[in-house]
Design a protein that fits this description.
By secondary structure, this protein is of the alpha+beta class. The protein has one domain. 27% of the residues lie in helices and 17% in strands. It has 2 helices and 3 strands; from the N terminus they run βααββ. A 3-stranded antiparallel β-sheet has the order 1-3-2. A hairpin with a 3-residue loop joins β2 and β3. The relative contact order is 0.25.
Length: 71
């Protein structure tokens, strides 16, 4: 996956379709998304609270990746 410059103010991150999971609780789901974000942007930390500002219920779904972006 191409990665934007670390200087950018990009507000989206991908999860591969094959890696995506469903969870029993929202807290577990947010933890999973947090790990995916931090893997894509290794120099940035993400909190579960900030993740709530992302479009979690309607991400962009492509053939290979699901993209989560800010509302």
């Amino acid at each position: 996956v191409g990665r934007p410059s670390f200087q950018t103010k990009a507000n989206a991150f991908p999860i591969s379709v094959s890696e995506y999971e469903m969870f029993d609780t929202k807290d577990k789901y947010l933890g999973f998304l947090q790990k995916c974000y931090e893997r894509y942007y290794p120099k940035e930390k993400m909190s579960k609270k900030i993740l709530l500002s992302y479009e979690l219920d309607n991400p962009f779904v492509g053939r290979e990746y699901i993209w989560f972006y800010k509302k």
